Structures are given as C-alpha cells and as structure tokens.
C-alpha cells in the first residue's frame, strides 16, 4: 500500500516541489502505522532517469549493510522512486541507498532527505556515514539526543608508541566537565576502536551534567586499520600492551584512579570481544567490561566450508565463552548489550548464561536492531550508569 503522501504525489494533489519541501521539513523515511506493532516504512529517492536504487540496512546475517533485493519503484510523472516495506514498529537501524548507473557501478550514499546524525563516522569505514531510521516505538536514547545537541569540547590528541608491538597509534583523551587537581583520582573508561568523532565523551558529559554518574575520563584508543583484526581477537600481546604501556602512559599525564573498580574497558564488535577477554585475564587492572555486540562466537580454529568441505568442519566452544567457563570467577563487572536481530545474539545469550551461572555482577540487554552503531552510540549511556553511578546511586537506572 502506498504512503498517503506518495498517493498525493501520484494523483497530482501535491506537486513534486511541494513533496520535496515536505521531505526537507519532515525528513524520511515516511512512516504509516498499520497495526499495534507494525508500520509501513517508505523510503524516497530522486536519483536521475538512468539510475536504479536499492536499500541496504544494518539488520540481517551480514556484519554491515544487508541488501534488500527490491528496487525502488518510479512514481509516474515525477522524478521520485519509492520503496515501501512493512516493519516492526520498535526498530532503530542504520541504512544507505545504493544507486546503479548505466555502467553498472554502484554508489553507496545516505538518504539525501535524512542526513547522517552526529557521531556517524566510525572506525570501521563500511559502517560510516549512514542515515538512521527511528521507528515510532523504538526505545528512546535520550542521552544520545542530549549528546548530539551539545557535543563535548575538543579532545586532547596524542600518539602512543608501543615498544612491545613495534607500532604506534592515535589516542584521544577527554576529561569530564569541571576542574580537577593533579591529586584527583578520576574513574575512566578506555574505549577501543576509538576515533575523535566517537559519541562516548559527549554522552559522558550529558550524564555528568545531569548528576547521574561520577565525573570520569574517556580514553579513545585507535586501532591501525591493518592490525585491527589481529589486535582485537583475544590477542595476549595487545592486552599486555594496554596494561604495561597504555596505563602507565595515562597515569603519567592525567589524574586517574589506580583502583581497578574505577577502570572500564569498552568496545563494540571485535572491540567488545577484546574488552571481555582482556578484563578476564587482567582483573587487577580492569574492574569493568563494556561489551557492545561482542563478537563472542570467535574461535581461531573455526573454519567454514561448503559442499563436501563442510563435512570436515569442527565447531569449538568460542574463545571468550570457553575462557570465562574455565576460569575462576574474576572480581570484574560486565555490561553486555546485543541486537535481537543480529546473528551473534545466540553466542551473546550463551555468554550471559555462563556469566550469570558463575556469579558475575553483570547486566545484559537486548535491543530491537542489528549489529549497529545506531544503538551502540546511545546504549553506551546505560553502560556508564552501570559502571560509574554517583556514590549511593541506584545502579538499576541502567
């Protein structure tokens, strides 16, 4: 069924210019409720006569953008193309358009009527610069909204040279609002896959200004692109670098706490895997882990085959789950979120079952979406509320 506004365009009640003006003022996609928990969502593009358009969303089996096979349909007598899909009304998701010209080359771009939000540049390039759809019953992310409206001041940038790894990486440090002496002992979170455009400092500032968390520093650690997959996959050398080189480097420069309970290690996807594994193996350094859609199905010996090759496959217990199962319960706290609609949620549920069974202080959340920064950017507020509430504060606010 066509969206009512598209019907007005089709019948000539609205001119193309009026329709464009509406899109500029209201944005896209267009959403029409069809039942208590479903909506029709209409995406609109104006690509040019010789182009075809398809949609890709960060929901589905692929880590990244999953293509929707149906092409946008032309609206007769206008330059517009539209695609209407029925969806759950509680979804939040990143999406892009893919335009294909007569030469057959695809160009990926955000929805021209729904520009990427603030903090949309990501360390993993294929996720960057996407539009975000927030359907009417999606869980609100109020602290992300506040962060987008009032971003944190500029970060202090530096380069950390690692003797043990023989490389160097960018590090960005953001101190919390307020004045702190050299004798302060601030809690802090180290976030892997850091970039200077990350939402974490601004989300932190919004929570500190509201009086909900302790003032804490945010340290964003860059991953050299060529080394990312090697560094973050349960790599003892990288974890040792964090403990033996990054931490002393930070303590020499900033008034940070040395209490493990005041230190959190955070990451998304492979970064979440690394954070969970590092905290388990270095509990006297890191007392908190923030795992956002961690890749906890990873095992170095897991290989997939096709055809007859599949008959040789062995499926070991994933590394993170196996290590938490085998080790004595460590004195660490674990915040863990994952998308209900991403392929890794089965392993996340398994990890949560292990953590709960072994008596960890843990909080597990599932959100209505996929492996998606659109959720991670805002759910990070819940993680900070969990890790660093004000003294006497109610951790259930997370």
UniProtKB/TrEMBL annotation:
Return the Pfam families for the record. Answer: Esterase (PF00756)
Cross-referenced PANTHER family, in alphabetical order? ENTEROCHELIN ESTERASE-RELATED (PTHR48098), IRON(III) ENTEROBACTIN ESTERASE (PTHR48098:SF3)
Family annotation (Gene3D superfamilies):
alpha/beta hydrolase
Protein name in UniProt? Enterochelin esterase
The record's section on InterPro entries has: AB_hydrolase_fold, Esterase-like, Ig_E-set, Mycobacterial_A85_antigen
């Amino acid at each position: 069924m066509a969206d009512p506004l598209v019907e007005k365009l089709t019948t000539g009640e609205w001119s193309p210019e009026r329709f464009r003006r509406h899109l500029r003022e209201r944005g896209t996609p267009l959403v029409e409720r069809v039942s208590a928990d479903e909506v029709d969502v209409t995406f609109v593009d104006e690509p040019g006569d010789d182009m075809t358009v398809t949609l890709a969303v960060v929901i589905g089996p692929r880590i990244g953008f999953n293509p929707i096979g149906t092409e946008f349909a032309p609206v007769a007598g206008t330059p517009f193309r539209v695609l209407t899909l029925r969806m759950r009304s509680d979804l939040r998701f990143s999406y892009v358009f893919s335009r294909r010209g007569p030469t057959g080359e695809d160009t990926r771009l955000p929805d021209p009527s729904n520009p990427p939000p603030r903090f949309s540049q990501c360390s993993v390039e294929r996720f960057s610069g996407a539009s975000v759809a927030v359907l009417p019953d999606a869980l609100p992310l109020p602290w992300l909204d506040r962060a987008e409206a009032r971003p944190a001041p500029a970060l202090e940038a530096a380069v950390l040279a690692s003797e043990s790894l023989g490389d160097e990486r960018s590090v960005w440090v953001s101190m919390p609002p307020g004045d702190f002496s050299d004798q302060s002992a601030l809690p802090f979170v180290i976030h892997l896959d850091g970039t200077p455009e990350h939402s974490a400092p601004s989300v932190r500032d919004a929570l500190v200004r509201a009086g909900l968390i302790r003032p804490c520093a945010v340290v964003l650690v860059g991953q050299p692109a060529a080394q990312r997959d090697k560094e973050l996959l349960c790599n003892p050398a990288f974890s040792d670098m964090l403990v033996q080189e990054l931490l002393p480097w930070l303590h020499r420069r900033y008034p940070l706490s040395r209490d493990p309970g005041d230190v959190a290690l955070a990451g998304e996807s492979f970064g979440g895997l690394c954070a969970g594994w590092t905290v388990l193996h270095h509990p006297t350094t890191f007392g908190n882990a923030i795992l956002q859609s961690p890749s906890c199905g990873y095992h170095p010996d897991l290989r997939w085959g096709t055809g007859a090759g599949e008959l040789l496959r062995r499926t070991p217990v994933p590394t993170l789950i196996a290590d938490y199962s085998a080790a004595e319960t460590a004195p660490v706290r674990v915040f863990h979120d994952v998308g209900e609609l991403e392929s890794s949620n089965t392993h996340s549920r398994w990890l949560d079952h292990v953590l709960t069974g072994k008596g960890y202080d843990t909080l597990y959340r599932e959100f209505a979406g996929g492996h998606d920064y659109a959720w991670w950017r805002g759910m990070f507020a819940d993680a900070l509320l969990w890790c660093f509430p004000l003294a006497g504060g109610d951790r259930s606010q997370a």
